[in-house]
Each structure stands twice: as C-alpha cells, then as structure tokens.
Amino acid sequence: MKATQNPPTAAPVTPADLLRMAALYLRRHGWHQGTYYAPTTDPLTPPACAAGAIGIACAGYTVEHFSQLDPDALADYLSALGVFVDYLDATAPVFHIDEDGYLLDEHTSPYSWNDDPARTAEQVITALEAAADEWDSLRTTGGENA
C-alpha cells in the first residue's frame, strides 16, 4: 500500500450483522405477520415480518419485492435469509407433506414460520439474534474470523 492510499476503515457487513440489525429494527419499529410490512401512516419505518426486517437491514428502505434490490443488496439479503433458514431448519423445523406423503419443502419457510398464529414478536427477535450468534460461532476462533 502506498503512503497516500487510505486503508479500509470498515469491516465488511456479515449475515450475522444483518440479522442483528433486523432484530433491532423489529424491537424499535414493531413486528408484523401476513405481509412484509404492516399498513401504516409511517411508510419509512413500518412494522415488518422477519424477512421484511432483513430486507430493510440490507437495503435501508422498504421494497415491495426483494427482486427490486440492487445486486449487492440482493446478495446480502439472500445470504442473511439463508443463514436464518438454516437456523430455523435446525431449531424449529416445519415441513410440509402432501396428501401422498411426499415432502413438499425440505427447508423451513421463514414466511410461514413468521406467520404462525402462535408466533410472538419476541420469538422472532430471539431467533434472528440466535441465528446471528450461531453464524458468528461457526466462523470465529477466539474472537477472530476463521
């Protein structure tokens, strides 16, 4: 590096960071079921479902569908959502079996998990934070990235 170059000042944002940001968003602005965002008079910070909160953490704003995200934000969203799905698969598997006994979906849907009528906001927030902790624990050794 040349003396005139500025070293990077920020570490890259990880899926764990995004999951924690999503959990914080839900604590501050509220949780929602049924759609990504609750109908509200505050369109900038509406209550969100788990996937909607992850999207806001990635993009910094609400979007109607995550295919509208720019490529970098979409990659971050899919990575963070994947980490969350992996966590749900390990801790709260929900499998859908058709009438013939065939498995329809091998992964827990974060959407149907979030929308379970028995689900609470605290369960969603706790799961997002636990998924982040698990991601970190699998990738760090003594506090340093492995």
Could you walk me through the main structural features you see in this protein, from its secondary elements to its overall organization?
With about 150 residues, this protein is mainly alpha-helical. The protein has one domain. It is built from five helices and four strands. A two-stranded antiparallel ribbon has the order 1-2. It has a two-stranded antiparallel sheet with strand order 3-4. Helix 1 packs across helix 3, helix 2 runs antiparallel to helix 3 and helix 3 packs across helix 5. It is globular and about 65 Å long. The protein starts with 14 loop residues before the first helix and ends with a strand.
Which keywords apply here?
mainly alpha; 146 residues; two-stranded antiparallel ribbon; globular
Average of per-residue pLDDT values: 86
How many separate domains make up the residues? 1
Structural class: mainly alpha
* Helix content bin: 40-55%
Q: What spatial order of strands do you see in the largest sheet?
A: 1-2
Q: How widely separated are the two ends?
A: 24 Å
| Radius of gyration, in angstroms, nearest whole number | 17 Å
- Beta strands, count: 4
Number of helices: 5
Largest sheet: 2 strands, antiparallel
Q: What proportion strand?
A: 5-15%
Rough outline: globular
Give the SSE order as H and E letters: HHHEEHHEE
Catalogue the unreliable spans.
none
